[in-house]
Amino acid sequence: LSDESRKDDLITFEELGVDSIMVDEAHNFKNLAIFSKMNNVSGISSSGAKKSTDMQLKCQYLSEINDGRGIVFATGTPISNTMCEMYVMQLYLQKSALEEMGIHHFDSWAANFGEVTTALELTVEGSGFRFKSRFNKFTNLPELMNIFREVADVQTADMLDLDVPALRGGKPIIVESEPDWYVKQVMEEFVVRAERIRGGGVDPSVDNFLKITHEARLLGTDARLIDKDAPNNPDGKLNKVAENVWKEYVKGNADGHIGCQLIFSDIGTPGPDKDFTIYDYLKESLIQYGIPAEEIAFIHDAKTDAQRDALFKEMRTGKKKVLIGSTDKCGTGVNVQTHLVAMHHVDCPWKPSSIEQREGRGIRQGNKNDEVAIYRYVTKQTFDAYNWSLVENKQRFISQVMTSKAVSRSCEDIDEATLSYAEIKAVATGNPLIREKMEVDNDVQRLKLLKASYDNQRYGLQDNFMIKYPKLIKTATEKLANVREDIKARDKELIDNPDFAITIGNATYTERVDGGTVMLEAISKCKTGETTPVGKFHGFELLVEKNFLSINYMVLRGKTEYKAELSTSPVGSMVKLENLFNGLHENVDFLEKKIEQYQNDLEASKAEYDKPFAYSAELEEKLARQYELNAQLDLENAKAMDADLGGPDEEKSEDRIENAGIVAEDKGIYMPDRNRKR
């Protein structure tokens, strides 16, 4: 922020005299950059939004001048996607309190209240396994919530008796659609693609599970989002949405009443150069049913705040009866609840908070109706059910934290937005055992990899305590004995000849400056990369070592060798040589510690070698379950299936494509024009 040019050369925030701020929909500022030493850990983002950084600076300033007061946040979804959002909220509201507890940065907070879990899982492109670290587990949750509740007044639906309409039927209405032959064919193609990806025969930049996930999400809504020439399924999701909206329209506007509705879809939004959009198709279908065009609106048509306010007013008065929008544009800050009778989820968003924000448009104070219907649309044998299941599981995690009841000691986040091969095949076939079979196969392969790693580690440990460390101990012991012999020789020499004397070539020098000068001259004549004898010092052979890095060493050789770096100063070199000679006893302590360390490492290697495989029971259990599933699924060759874990060969994939085409053709030719409504 400070690097950018200032847009407003006026007074600063501090000069405004603001002493308090109140922030509604505070979750819009949760995307704050988190600085951490934990790298490549899913759930921790170091990138953030500038508006969040700006909010942090303002909160920090106001907290400083008001002794921790002056900041009020209001939100229904303080945690909407990841655990880190809890830390962000605390950073905004109670930074000083955290610092008093010794928590000055995210890593400290994570060490106290979070846990990074690492697991072996399939890569996104499905070509192999990798270790994936995720920050997805709360620990010491009661203590964390006690701290958080110093600044957070958590009010949940079970605590409040608000005058809001009831949910019709007590739960959302699930509307299921049958897939037509085209959707089934594309689903089969997804399976073939997944098999190829899993086999490693596809470039990840060309096709991967993320791409299949995106296309599958579109397919579950309407096949024309993938292929504009795809047939219009008369029993498809969009046609059922239009039918239910029409029924609610007739019922809600009978006897002089006003009934308005919201339709949510984050995909298939209107825009230029789009061959097919959900919004346009729904509008045309509703017009065909009999709803006037002027009573149907797109949230995207309201470009400015004034236009949005005018549109919302028309919804509240009943001039507009149907509003179609996305979560971002129609989920937050939209007050159109006055006559709302029904809400329709065409698609499933990835975050539970998005569902809360959507449904909060109607189930809120100010709605004059006694009840509101919520429709969720699912196309069978597609990934719609998977998406809803994923979001519900994530909501359970959030509910464990943001609750009025006592919280558990720990809870784990669910962070997975990419379909696996098992999920693709299970949904496509409609057989849940297929998914379990693939999951068990993956578990078996993962455990076998861990077992292979365990075996390799044991081989290394065996080599350590049988060869490596005994050899190191023997070498160090022999050197220690030689050092002690050299110390005896040194002590005798110092008694017999205590004065300085060095022999270079055939000449002996008693002055350090003379000996050092001649020694440096001798080094200049030595060859690089060699160790050359140049004389004697107190009965020890004196050598010089000249390496390729232009670093020269003096070497004293008795029973063993001792080395010191040469100085560029003649006197300095002689002082270093004397220190090396006088400090021979230091090698005794060093070698004794080394021998002790090697002995400890040897014993540790033995102990580690004797440990059993930690996942042995789990592997046996998974292998047994794999055999049972093979039998239940009537697989003709269980062993071949097990060997096929690495992925099918190309020939099998080609057969699947051909078979998929035959299945589609056998079902008859679909007549798109006859079934289209537009």
TrEMBL record:
Domain Helicase C-terminal: 237-422
A GO molecular function held by the record: helicase activity
Alphabetized UniProt keyword annotations: ATP-binding, Coiled coil, Helicase, Hydrolase, Nucleotide-binding
Residues in coiled coil: 574-636
Bias (Basic and acidic residues) ranges: 649-664
Keyword Nucleotide-binding found: yes
Signal peptide: none
SMART domains the UniProt entry points to: HELICc (SM00490)
UniProt KW Signal keyword: no
Top-level taxon in the UniProt lineage: Bacteria
Region Disordered, annotated ranges: 640-664
Alphabetized PANTHER family for the sequence: ADENINE-SPECIFIC METHYLTRANSFERASE, DNA METHYLASE ADENINE-SPECIFIC DOMAIN-CONTAINING PROTEIN
Name of the protein in its database record: Helicase-related protein
